[in-house]
Amino acid sequence: MGNGIAQVAARSGFDVVMCDVSAEFLARGMKAIDKSLQRDVDKERLAADEKNAITGRIKTTTEMAELASAVIVVEAVTEDLNVKQKVFQSLDSITAPAAILASNTSSISITRLGSATGRADKVIGMHFMNPVPVMKLVEIIRGAATSDDTYAKVHALTEKLGKIPLECQDSPGFISNRVLMPMINEAIFALYEGVASRESIDGIMKLGMNHPMGPLTLADFIGLDVCLAIMNVLHEGFGDSKYRPCPLLKRYVDAGWLGRKSGRGFYEY
Ligand code: CAA
């Protein structure tokens, strides 16, 4: 999702530094940005020179130190508390004390990420939705210590990005995944129990509920590893068995069938 966030920020006129662990990942990210912008050029919604100007505003690096002059950093690393906490500790020492540190986490506690830094008042959740250039929402999550000033600045920034900010308190899964993920998990249980085929389950939700994608297709799109990580956060966070991840979801993740990104999930790609 990092490249989608970089694209949206650069398109809104911001200078962006996109940082990743390897040159290969950065090249893949720039390729995705190019492809996404090219759609709009092809549809004559963006001039070719504007596209070049947008990509020209994105600098790539594998050195986190290059984020030193950032006014705001939006972290979008792997959905793992320990990894994210280490990244936040590094960002806290690299960036200026006034910089805001935002996380694109889909379910990890913003309060916990804030407490890994010496500036919990400037740590906040900015949860973008996939595909980032298309989806209007940014769920803004306030940690226990997030200040009103940080919230106001991130709210204004989200609007400058052409997105709609909606506020939520720090609670497992926030709102988006507290509501979405149990539905996806239930669809997986229905498949596991043989209640219906994958096509029927998805078709019923698409045609009957007007969802743009059926829940199993959406799970493949999000990534089954991400779905499992979110169900685990809900299960542990609420201690309620209604959030237990479906064994079929666990089995697919164990097999490396992670959805679109690995070529196989509930469907083959
Ligand atoms: N970059 C730029 N534009 C894109 C794009 C991308 N990556 N993907 C699709 N689009 C654009 C297309 O150009 C097209 O634009 P126009 O209609 O203006 O011409 C539009 O989006 C629709 O695309 P398509 O016609 O190719 O396909 P579609 O109608 O099936 O839409 C979809 C694709 C937007 C992904 C749609 O299926 C959808 O909304 N799916 C549900 C997405 C969703 O639920 N996202 C949230 C996931 S949860 C999450 O992200 C958070 C979490 O924590 C897990």
Model description:
With 269 residues, the protein is α/β, with parallel strands linked by helices. It has eleven helices and seven strands. It has helices at 2-11, 23-42, 48-56, 81-94, 110-115, 148-160, 176-192, 198-209, 215-222, 224-238, 247-255, and strands spanning 16-19, 58-61, 72-75, 100-103, 123-128, 137-142, 164-169. Strand 5 (123-128) and strand 6 form a beta hairpin. The longest helix has 20 residues, at 23-42. The radius of gyration is 19 Å and the shape is globular. The structure holds acetoacetyl-coenzyme A. Residues 36, 39, 43, 106, 129-131, 133-135, 176-177, 212-213, 218, 222, 226 line the site of acetoacetyl-coenzyme A (CAA). Acetoacetyl-coenzyme A binds at residues 36, 39, 43, 106, 129-131, 133-135, 176-177, 212-213, 218, 222, 226.
How are the SSEs ordered, and which strands pair?
Elements: H1 2-11, E1 16-19, H2 23-42, H3 48-56, E2 58-61, E3 72-75, H4 81-94, E4 100-103, H5 110-115, E5 123-128, E6 137-142, H6 148-160, E7 164-169, H7 176-192, H8 198-209, H9 215-222, H10 224-238, H11 247-255
Parallel strand pairs: 1-2, 3-4, 4-5, 6-7
Antiparallel strand pairs: 5-6
The protein binds acetoacetyl-coenzyme A (CAA).
Short structural description:
The chain has 269 residues and is an alpha/beta fold. The protein is built from eleven helices and seven strands. Helix 7 crosses helix 9 (215-222), helix 7 packs across helix 10 and helix 10 (224-238) crosses helix 11 (247-255).
Strand content: 5-15%
Q: Which distinct ligands sit in these coordinates?
A: acetoacetyl-coenzyme A
- Tally of DSSP helical segments: 11
Overall spatial form = globular
The Cα radius of gyration reads 19 Å
Most strands sheet = 5 strands, mixed
- How does the helix and strand content classify structurally? alpha/beta
Main β-sheet, spatial strand arrangement = 3-4-5-6-7
